[in-house]
Amino acid sequence: MENNPEDEHLSMLVLIGGGGHCKSVIDAAKRMNCFDEIVITDPNIKQGTRVLGCTVAGTDDCLEELHRQGFEYAFVTIGSVKINLLREKIADKVAALGYTFPVIRDPSAIVSGSAIIGDGTFIGKNVVINAETKIGRHCIINTGAIIEHECSIGDFTHISVGTILCGEVTVKDNCMIGAGTTVIQRININKNVVVGANSAVLADVEENMKCYGIVNNRGGV
Predict the structure, then answer these.
(1) pLDDT tens string 185-219
(2) Minimal CA–CA distance to 72: which of 1, 32, 26, 12?
(3) HEC string of the chain?
(4) What is the pTM (predicted TM-score) of this model?
(5) Percentage of residues in the chain with pLDDT exceeding 90?
(6) Which residues of 73-94 are buried (b: 16+ CB within 10 A; e: fewer)?
């Protein structure tokens, strides 16, 4: 179920991680025009630094205090270029503090009214998500990705820039599908899989695999 901060009278957002992915999220969040204040936590950026107009409030140690100050929403903005279990660990910690995770969706994205988007998921610029697709929690659906009808994407999965998932594709938890990849219809990609950039996935992929190129029953060439 998608959390809609625009339904709240006052929406204050903490972004956790101040790198490049954070900048993409800030840009989309500002374009949504529903957050009154956005701050960042990051142990590697000096407190008080401004990132695209948002202040670094400190390290993750200040999350509890920020929640007491009225920051209800949080979002994990650590990027993912491979299997990244750190994102899941941080999300669990932040949820235990009482934060709510919104969906951050750039206004340029086209999302079917019948699609279901999980909490904490980012939907970037010019993404298309078609009918009856289900996307899990804390996913990254990056710039220009196309997710066709009746696809299913698990939690903490990253669908990279320009990737195409044809109809009825399943991608399970903690996967990374590289930029420019095409996955043909009705393919199943199991947990913890990394698919290299510009691949063509023509057959199911088993758990914990790394594959690239023409991915067929032999696992990739």
Answers:
(1) 999 999 999 999 999 999 999 999 999 999 996 54
(2) 12
(3) CCCCHHHCCCCEEEEECCCHHHHHHHHHHHHHCCCCEEEEECCCCCCCCEECCEEEEECHHHHHHHHHCCCCEEEECCCCCCCCHHHHHHHHHHHHCCCECCCEECCCCEECCCCEECCCCEECCCCEECCCCEECCCCEECCCCEECCCCEECCCCEECCCCEECCCCEECCCCEECCCCEECCCCEECCCCEECCCCEECCCECCCCEECCEECCCCCC
(4) 0.93
(5) 89
(6) bbbbbbbbeebbeebbebbeeb
The two three-digit tokens of residue 61, written as one number: 């140690």
Tokens standing for 140?
């990254």
User: Do the beta carbons of residue 166 and residue 185 sit within 8 Å?
Assistant: yes
Segment 71-85 mean pLDDT: 87
Q: What is the pLDDT of residue 81?
A: 75
Order of all β-strands in the sheet with 122-123:
104-105, 122-123, 140-141, 158-159, 176-177, 194-195, 210-211
The label of the residue with tokens 């109809």 reads 167
Pairing label, strands 210-211, 188-189: unpaired
Residue listed under structure tokens 């932040």: 94
The pLDDT tens digits of the residues spanning 114-152 come to 999 999 999 999 999 999 999 999 999 999 999 999 999
